[in-house]
Design goal:
Blueprint (H helix, E strand, L loop, with lengths): L2 H19 L2 H21 L1
């Protein structure tokens, strides 16, 4: 990846992060839930 692409990506990510900031608690719970699901699927699978 070129530095320009990396910069664009990080700019986009920070914009997304600002939007999601309002829902940060929800996002964190969702991410934790996703992690639990992948851990469970590893055990089950």
């Amino acid at each position: 990846m070129t530095p320009r692409k990396i910069h664009e990506l990080s700019t986009n990510l920070s914009a997304i992060a600002k939007i999601l900031g309002k829902h940060q608690g929800t996002v964190q719970r969702w991410l934790a839930h996703e992690d639990d699901c992948s851990v469970m699927s590893l055990y089950i699978g």
